Amino acid sequence: MPYGDAMNARVRSEERRAEIVRAALEVIAERGYRGASLAAVAERVGLTQQGLLHYFPTKEAVLVAVLKERDQWDAVPATQWRVDLLASLVEYNAMRPGIIQTFSALLGESVTEGHPARAYFTERYRQVRESMAAVLRTAYGDRLPNGLTPERTAPLLVAVMDGLQYQWLLDPDSVDMPAAFRDFLTLLGEEAEEL
Question: Which of 52, 57, 70, 118 is spaced 20 to 30 A from 20 at the CA atom?
Answer without folding.
Answer: 118
